[in-house]
Structures are given as structure tokens and as C-alpha cells.
Amino acid sequence: MFQVEMDNGIVKITVSRPYGNLRGIKYHGVENLLDDDLDRDDRGYWDCSWEDVNGSNGKQSMILGDRFQVIMRTNNQVEVSFKTTWKSSDPLPALNVDKRYVMLSGSSGFYTYAIYERLKGWPGMFLWETRIVFKLSQKWFQYMAISDTRQKIMPTSADRERGQSLAYPEAVLLKNPMNSELEGEVDDKYQYSSESKNDRVHGWISLNSGIGFWIITPSNEFRTAGPLKQDLTGHVGPTCLSMFMSAHYTGVPLNATFENGEPWKKVFGPVFIHLNSVSDKTKATSLWGDAKQQTWKEIISWPYSFPHSPDFLKSDQRGSVIGQLSVQDQYLKVGNGPARFAHVGLAAPGDARSWEFQTKGYQFWTRTDEHGNFFIKAVLPGAYNLHAWVPGVMGNYMYEATVTVTPGSVTKLPPFVFKPPRDGPTLWEIGIPNRHAAEFYVPNVTKNINKLYLEQDKFRQYGLWDRYAELYPENDLVFTVGTSDYAKDWFFAHVLRSLPDGKFKATTWQIVFDLPKVDKAGTYKLRLELAAAHLAEVQVRVNRRDAIRPDFTTGLTGRDDAIARHGIHGVHRSFTAALPGSLFVNGRNTIFLHQPRNQHAFQGVMYDYIRLEGPPQSTH
């Protein structure tokens, strides 16, 4: 097997030819930052997980090129291509892939991107996941950094092998690790997941050589499912990941489904692999700060001007969209007006929630300012719907008209007014409509800890699903409106009760509240906003706990797996229960929330927000 070397005097990379897999990265006197103990083509690569429409041949496949080409070679830039051409006789996904590596003069790193393409007439398939994997040298890298507060020395692969397996293979209790300070901790790659909007840079630091390895993602336009999509960043190996598409925290709905004959093309990346160093090794962790500065430089430079593929559109080939969003809730005296710091985005046409499930196209998101103004720049030409949600306001907004973006255009949209779902006045509410469950009570763990999360992001600790039965050993949760505090008295996840025999018991939560005067002829609305759900169901009963038929049910919903994977949300879901006034009584009432699905420990829901509305008032 031949290989290609790219060297700008700062960084040298070695890539197999024609496969296009990274074999070596030389930097700052270290011959190879990748793991030399692995097979040469198993150190840095693009791959995908897929299945054909018949449910056969599904597997994880490296994307291996079969043709190499030098695209551009000047004193300032080198760009090379490794193309994969699909043949009907191949037991591989029906995709053509053009992997590119770009190195610029004076740059401490290199760029990589790929063009995925399906031609008309090709057989259908499911694409579950695609990513770039970097397996770094265990000799050099020990310290992983994801954010300002999520950084730590990590265990080794050998530590995991010596550890005790827990409820699923990804979670291991460390025993006798090489670093004794990690003794008794849990290691689980899902504890290091991040939302797309927060994951612009992550990587590893070599404490003994003062070198940093970073994946910088300058734009999220090519990632799937919008800014709240959670995914893996890195894990023991040491492994560093650039995830473009996966079903993590979403489940089957996020698989990209291609029908027989359906054509498709998408550019993933470029992402920048940034390498940095510090002469004083005792200050190696300061490399995180340098990586953040480099990240802002990359973001400001987007869209890049240097990629040579005509499929990557430059700044003058894109357009911009500007507008203003306000909120109008007829039953609120405070909170109407400009939609401050709302999330606003463009996605392929669909319904008001479709952006959370889109996998094939591009999305472009921004935040409004304090006056509700927004500016979405560098948008690829095409037809879009505009979506928005506002922190603290329930519901999803979608501008029904198609927004058409053309090259070089600035599309000024009319002022939008978001009228959130509302049928009557608020009688009571629990939580904050913010699409996650972090404001609720997350307990401390009593065993199997990860020290990184003792004071922050406690929901990332392993085994919190078992804490519910410890905190409520006899009776399930009861929340009394006006007395209870959801930050202390509402467990963050409606989970099952673990029993001594290894089985799980369904749980029923109660919301107790007073209604001084019931409108028997009216209809009350119970709004259930779910931050996550996994093979679960919420049944609602009013004042009749043992009624055979619930007054409302969500039905079986969700495959987020957020409970097991330490998320504080998965895919957001909204339900509205129309409850006849005849179900209520003057005085004390109780709403029972029953989760009956109890096959395994991780079935359950996380509530985002619950609100009871009274019947409409004529004055409104």
C-alpha cells in the first residue's frame, strides 16, 4: 500500500493511498501523535454505519478510497482527494464519497471534508451514522477537554479492561487504575457528550510533551438535527471524534432513509484539526485557551475560501436572512414583546418540529438579540422554513411561507409574531419551558461516581435511575402546587422503581392542587412538554387513580435513551390533554401521571414543563 505525505514545515501528515486513512501526524518533535500500536489504517479514518432497505448487509464500514488525485498544489496550499466509487457488486453503502485533506502554508494543523453522493437509480439504504475517528497515542495523550469546566485526566484502555462492567458495556467501574486518583470512578463515553451548539472545539492534551490535539468545527450547518442535537466527543482510547450524523439521544427517527432511486449530495465539513504546544509542560492545560482562540478564528473565516471542490460554496455563492421575532400570549401580562435571545433557524421545508429529525440537508441557526432581531448569514441557496423557539416560552414557531435564498442575496423577512400554544389562563405550572429538565431535582450519587460531575452537570452521573427508589422507598412522588418546589421536590426523570429481584415497578406521580370554583361545562387543558422519552408512556388520570381507562395517554413514545446515556434531554415532544370540567371538584384535586412501561430500567420520561390551563375566558 502506497502513502501520501503532506508537510508544511509545522505539521506533517501521512495518508494511505488510495484508501485515504491517516497513518501518522508528526508535530513538534513527536514522530506520530496517532497510535502506532494499531494497524496503520485503523488510526484515523472516516466511517459510516448503514443498512440496505432489505435489512441485510447492515454494518459499520470504513470509507476507503479507490482513487487518489492531487487537486491543488501551490506554495500556499495542497489539497488531495481520495474517492470512493460505489459498484453494485460491492457489499458497501450505495454512496460515492470524495474525501479531501487540505494543508495551508503556516497553518498548525490540517483540514478535512468529504462530499457524499448518491446517484439517481441507486438502491435505497439507511444511513445511521457518519463521523471521523482519530485514535491518538496512549503514550502521549492523557487529558481530555470538552469545555471550560469539563476537563480531566482520563483512564487508559487497560484500566477499562481491568474494570467492572456495569449495566451496559459502555459503563465500567475502574478498579486498580494506573492513576490511583481514578480508583472507584465510573468511565462511560456518554458522560462526555455535548450539544452541537456547544461543541465547537474539543480534544486531548499530552501532559508529558505539552502538545494539544483539537477538532474544531467552525459551522454546524452540516450536522444533523439542529443545535440541540447531542453526540459523542471523545472517550478512552484516547479517541477523538467528529460526529456529523447519528441516532444518539434521538433513536430510529434520525436515521437518514433513502428510497430506491433517490439521489442525494451533501458536504460534511471542513473541520480543522488544530495542533498546538507549550514549552512549559507544567502549563499544558493552558493549550485549551489557545484552542478556543483558534476556534473563533475559524468561525470568523467561515465559509472558507480555500476548499477546491465546487460543491463547497463560498461566501459570494451564499445568501443571508434578516428579521425580527416577537411573542404575543394573550393571557400573559408580563413576557410579551421582543423574543429575546430566541433560537432561530432555517431548515428544509416540513412541520414545526421537523428540524429535530432532518438528516439529509443543511441547517442554519442563530440567536436573536434583546430586541428580537436576527441575522442568519452564509446560507446555502435553496428553499427553507424558518423555525424558532424562545427560552421560557412553550412551543415551536414556524413561518409557514417558504424562505428562498439565492446567491449574494439579503432576504429581509417581515416581522414575525409567535403566538404560543394557549387555550386558557394558567392555573399552575411546573418547571420552565426550556426543552430540558435541568431545573428539576438531580440528586447526588452515593456510589459509582465521576468526580468531574460532583458540583456541575450532576445529571451526567451514572446510576441516577436507581436513586429514585432510594429517595422514595415506599410511595411515589407527590407534588403539591403552592407548597412544593420543583427544584427540590420534582425528580428530574420519571423512572421506574427498581425492585430487589431485579424487576421494575411502574410508578405513579401525583400533582395535588386546589381549584376554588370548577367550570363543570368547560374544558381544561393539561400541557405536557417532554424533554426526553424512552419506550415510555404517560397516562393521565384526574382524581381517579385506579380508573381502568386513563383520561389521556401519550401512547408509547420515544427512543432517546437519555436516561441511560446521562442526557438531560433527548428529542422534545409536546402533548395536550383536553380534560372535561366534570373530572374536577371544587377544592382539592389530584392529577395522576402513570408511566406503565416497565420492561427495563431505562424506560421513562423527563418532563420539560407541565401547565394546567382553565377554560377560555370571554374577556380574552
UniProtKB/TrEMBL annotation:
Enzyme Commission (EC) number: 4.2.2.23
Main location: secreted
Lineage top rank: taxon: Eukaryota
BP-aspect Gene Ontology terms: carbohydrate metabolic process
SUPFAM superfamilies: Galactose mutarotase-like, Galactose-binding domain-like, Starch-binding domain-like
Span of domain Rhamnogalacturonan lyase: 340-413, 426-612
Keywords, alphabetical: Lyase, Secreted, Signal
Single annotated GO MF: carbohydrate binding
CDD domains recorded: RGL4_C, RGL4_M, RGL4_N
Enzyme class: lyase
Family: Belongs to the polysaccharide lyase 4 family.
Name recorded for this polypeptide: rhamnogalacturonan endolyase
Highest classification ranks of the organism: Eukaryota, Viridiplantae, Streptophyta, Embryophyta, Tracheophyta
